[in-house]
Amino acid sequence: MSRALFTLTNPGLLFGVALFAANTIGDKVSNLPLADLILPVYCLGLLYRQGTRSATGSLPGLVAAFALLVWIALANDQHGLDAAYQLRRLSSTATIFLPLYTFLWIRDKAALLSVLIGMMLGFALYFLGETAITLVTGGNVRALRWVQPTPVVLLAIPLVTQKQSSWLLRTLFYTSAIISCGIGVMAEARAPLIAVVVAVTLYGLARLFPWPRVVLVGVTFAALIAHCVMGLSANALDTVILENRATASNMERAAAVDYSLAMATANPIWGISQPFYGIDFADYYRALSGSGGELDYVESPHNTILEQAVFYGIPAAVLTLLAIFRLLWAPLASPAVARQLGAAMAVAAVIRLCAFYGISGIYRIEWHIAVALLYYLAARDRASAVSAPAAARTPRQGP
Q1: Who contacts 281 (Cβ-Cβ below 8 Å, separation ≥6)?
Q2: Which positions ≥6 away from 152 have C-beta within 8 Å?
Q3: Phi-psi region of 358 (alpha: psi -120 to 50; beta: other; left: phi over 0)
Q4: Looking at residue 26, what DSSP letter applies?
Q5: Contact (CB, 8 A) for 337 and 216
Q6: Which residue has the higher pLDDT, 16 or 57?
Q7: What are the tens digits of pLDDT across the range 295-317?
Q8: pTM for the complete prediction?
Q9: How far is it, in rounded angstroms, from Cα 306 to Cα 259?
Q10: Is 333:381 a contact under the CB 8 Å cutoff?
């Protein structure tokens, strides 16, 4: 029996748990997410220590990501933002892509994946602790939405790593996923549950059609641009009201989509200044609704492509779409990978995070691990393809 790679005693995994703890404490105490800064440095250290493997297929996506950073800098300059803000926005966007491209180049992918799994484990344990405290003290269950891991990410980890993870680690992730779904029901937060349904649907489609990669990436692409396409023919706020989904949160988010489309259309090259988006939209929504009451203070349209278009212009949205497309297209080349349930869960996580949450507010650890799991599956598939002929050529030992 092969020894499990990912266990609770794995140093990389424990380091990941510590990184998540540091990130959470830093974010609460000084609004400084430490892991977002430490993880890229750790990735570069792995590159230096291990050396690299060829990853020429990542070049188009890397060029798109670099061009996106340049365009964001130009847009912020057009908006007259200071150097400190420029640095924060560029580093924030860079940390979304840098660890993933590092993952493509390093030789020992299990080393970095251990850290990412550890960070996700820290997230799951933090959520379980907050859930226990809330239920025991009779607190507001809806407040748990802000510390709720995405169930499809929790499910993807044990499904992809399978016997390479210890049974205890798999049990923790499965249990956390079930509890996260339960909290979603109690808090009336439908999106995390819908993502699980999407994953199962994607799995079925990938098994049914002869080109599973086209199906998975195509559905992701459609989800990313859906807000923009639908907004050209229908008003999102009117749609929410007509479909009897007019909760306070839904109405405010729908209005944010309409407002963002209008602003992106009016400012197609450079967009509008991100720091003032929340304030300007709050004023717009109060005037629209005639309400002076409390708002959710939505700070983005909760869709990555629309978000980039309104903040930095349509060119930034196109570059972001290209970068995400290249990250997903490459690891799903093998039908054997694309037809796995773990791959469907990871793709559904990308759809949930990018199409219905937004890259500015994205939980980076969930985004990183969703994409990293796809590349880990692809690397394992290539290793199996190489080892199979070698095993066939090995002469059988005599009695």
Answers
A1: 255, 256, 259, 298, 299
A2: 192, 195, 196, 198, 199, 345, 346, 348, 349, 352
A3: left
A4: H
A5: no
A6: 16
A7: 566 777 888 899 899 999 999 99
A8: 0.89
A9: 11
A10: no
